[in-house]
Queue: 2 jobs
Job 1
Amino acid sequence: MPYHLFKCSECIPEREKHAVIKGPGETLADALPLGYLNTIPGTISERGCAYCGAKHVIGTPMKDVIHMSHGPVGCTYDTWQTKRYISDNDNFQLKYTFATDMKESHIVFGAEKILKKNIIEAFKAFPDINRMTIYQTCASALIGDDINAIAAEVMEEMPGVDIFVCNSPGFGGPSQSGGHHKINIAWINQKVGTFEPEITSDYVINYVGEYNIQGDQEVMQDFFKRMGIQVLSTFTGNGTYDGLRSMHRAHLNVLECARSAEYICNELRVRYGIPRLDIDGFGFEPLSASLRKIGMFFGIQDRAEAIISEEVERWKPELDWYKERLKGKKVCLWPGGSKLWHWANCIHEEMGVEVVSVYTKFGHQGDMEKGISRCEEGALAIDDPNELEGLEAMEELQPDIIFTGKRPGEVAKKIRVPYLNAHAYHNGPWKGYEGWVRFARDVYNGIFSPIHELSLLDISKDEIPDDKGFMTQRLLSDVNLSDEVKNSTVLREYTGGYDVLRQFKDKVYPEFPGKSEADMQVSAI
């Protein structure tokens, strides 16, 4: 097996088995790094904790809930507004965060009184919100505060409120994935089956493992609506507390992120007999196959085929344009979680890029199995890399761009490697057919950005050439556009991608495939 020991980790030889280079003809048994194990001391891991996995990933996308952390205020700040889990109630869950702000005195004498005081204060401060989730942290778990008893007291004293308790302290697992499991099981044990919904369709689903990053859920729900399917609840993006209590009445669980939410799907199958269907909202082919599977389950495949035909005809020419220009570009696919394997093959097949590395900070062996099986030979697969290993990998692989989170992404920018935020997106949503084209546009803009070209200049040594930058102005001078279009305020001031050209599509060109190279470069700036 081609294990890979980074030079920066030679003093920690145990790290060797956590990185593997996929060789020719190797099976998954030969190419899997060790994963989902306790962090090796001294490696300076960047993993999130189990509390983070419960609150940050699963819990807080619920929109009509006061999310209360029982612990030091730093814990809740670390999980506040770090992803774009938008909602249609003016983003209440993003605007506010709540914590009991435990101090040293509470560690010594207990913090149950301050917890109850904070719960009541929060409900009174926001009288329109009568649902709450309380998250246990390491501090409150270590001193043994009985959060469940306090929640029961408040619900007895304040009729009409409902409280869910998630006991997932930071030390509850090797990484944040342990928190995913804990909150999944806690929710079905405490809340599922305690609310009866209104059923309005013959086809009813729970959309599970979907967190509405920049509106992803809205895209998918539009497809379901066009198929006549009722989405009973979304676990948990833009989801309502009571809607998620009614998950037991669905006919089918449609699962997107199997890493974070398969646990509740499996329990719903065991306890209520609801089948599970895994789908994929990213990429033309995976999404089309997913809509067909759902259509076949309900016997409405013709509705799915109509959507697929319409969307592919509309968006495939634009995707092909980007694929032609991105072909052969090297990508480090470092998103962690399910996007590791949701994207590994389809960004290669549908965008033309070469995946030279995959990694996960908190994934299980199953994530690596699917991710490695879908990427090219020679790819470097890494479990739980630290910053130094990431830098060394980029130096060795020389990627054109990386897809990752904000922390490693900002490190990449320092060595002049562009990145896309795989966790919260740059210009999402990225799901759906149009969203996949939007993703390709972001990749194209990231690699060919004039600003990125300027960043490659060494101003301490090189004379700054006068033919760099001002790309939009130079391109406009080369394109045969009318004076009205050239002088347009939108075209001069807005640089957000092909949306510019939509403003003038009748004046510039009627159809996408017929654009000139210069036109297309303007549209991508």
Job 2
Amino acid sequence: MYDRKRMAEAWRTFVTTGVVDEDVVRPEVARSWRRCRAAGVNPWSSYFPDVDEALLKEKRDKYSHSLAANAPIMRIVMALLECNVSLMDQENFVFEFVSPLSYYPRTFGTYVLEEEVGTGNATVVSYEKKPVRVEGFEQYRAIAQTYSGVSAPFIDADGKYFGALNFNDPFNPLPPYALDMCAMGVDLANTLFLAKRSMNALLSTAEFFAPLVNLMDEPVLLLDMQGHVLLANAAMHPYVMGYERFSYGSQLVSAYLSKKTGADFLMKEAIKDGQPPAVVFKAPRKKEEHTLYLIRRRAIDLGNGLTYMVCVFKESAKVAKAAASRMGKPKVMGRATTRETVNYIGESEAWIKVDKLVRKIAPIKANVLILGETGTGKEVVARAIHAMSGRKGNFIAINCGAIPRDLFAAELFGYERGAFTGASESGAAGKIEAADGGTLFLDEIGEMPLDLQVGLLRVIQDQSVTRLGSTESRKFDVRFLAATNQDVRTLIDTQKFRADLYYRLSMVEIELPPLRRRGDDVRLLADYFNRDLSESLQLPYTPFSEEVMDALKGYTWRGNVRELRNIVERTLIMAGEGAKVTLSDLPAHVANAVSSGAKFMAPAKVMASLAEADAQERADQGTPADSPSDGDAAMRAERDRIIELVERYGGNISQAAKALGISRNTLYKRMGQLHLKVKVTVEVEESEG
């Protein structure tokens, strides 16, 4: 999370000493700062390049179709966020720009290059080739440090960067959801670009913009210029309840407004800084009325003969609470005691972030890519998204790594009679058709054969599927969720995964934290599994002892939640019930985690590598030392490697040290620096008689 004070200090330290405070500065920002310093960028410079009118005209002519595809998205975003929105080509030349400001001279018609203007979202995105956010003092030049910005790249099927969409606010921080909106904007622009002559058909209703509008936390209403309701996001629904039951664009907003403030007031009343007009809405079947404050209103010409009025409101705390009660009590996704109550459990800060994102995106028909280590609960989260989406169809899961390659296409797309040897006489629907009206979950998507990725991409874009052996295309309504424990960027770089499919599937990305970073969630989950498994195993439920819970919490859980569940099940079978489980019932590597005072974390300032420590010890003993490695190993990776090896060798430090290529004493010293201790348990088996 951006901390303005700490970031300002980190920036001052870097521009004066060249040292990056890696506890504060994000890696992509640090990389950019170093490039700026190496290029000789003056952090106090106020230089901006001049507009090149001739080149601007040339670029706009060259990219006319791209302009047409992006312009509606850019105008809607400007109205929603009241920020500058720009479009760059692969050379970072800004050839389109829209702004709520009457005059803004800086970037339009210029190259936005890091070696000239320093760190910013528009410069970092071309290096990172992924959606990025740059805030305040993360900007390298002082003149830009009032800015907040996000960018999302346009990437082709081969992973090549060919431009970016940028949002920038010169005065205020962009909202947390701005980065998701930027990535969504790129996806919608790609959809329009590929539609070509059908572009205007896609833009014929405001529903096309629903994925953008639904990301907004504030109530948003889209009207036509006659005051008909076209689209409302979830936060707005309580105030225009039932509008979707009418035919599109037929219900007037006046039907929901009090006589105190009618449609003319909503659409024409002046909005003054700090004094948003109060718009009064009727309450359904009740006498009381509710006031929303109109903070933004802008008429947007889409360029296809349609003009929308975009209205953004602010709720008072009292109004928001009343609205929430009218919509019904939300399903709680926190602590639970029975498997029927929730799909997942977590109260840690890391998991609360996941839960908030799941709640936000569940009602939106946006494709989601779920990332995380094996066993972190990717399918559980996918099922939760489906359950909260309101979709009436089935949740269909398919493991892309478990299906033989020769059967994959038939399993996914379905087939007709005689499509291949051994095909059923009646043919069969594929998983996509089975998920019609619901959700298709593609687990281990990184294992999907490359040639089938092309077919899947087309299916997702067209929302239609053609069975093997058929020429008939079948329309469907499916939401796609995907998951992987692999680094998709690496797969793209090694040409094992198509970049265009990645961007199609990852409208929203959810990264699940490993269990070792979820704090007391280990206790919650252990207790939940204890209750759940005791019931299924027909055992009495009794809680685990504190000693057992401490051991479970102290262990690093390489297999995450899945491993925890397996160990809880094993101990219940061995002991008979939770209260009877002791450390001796746990695997030795788990029981050892309860070592007195052990902390599986490294002090922030310990940076020496094992090789350097070993070299120092040899020097102290008068033994020739090998040359130290060029770079320090990351502490977390180093710590995890030590834990892994000590566990592998059952606590035998000599064998672990040998595997690391260092002495036993060096390993003990390094473990002390990293606050790692090993507890060894000895079991004595008494002989009979």
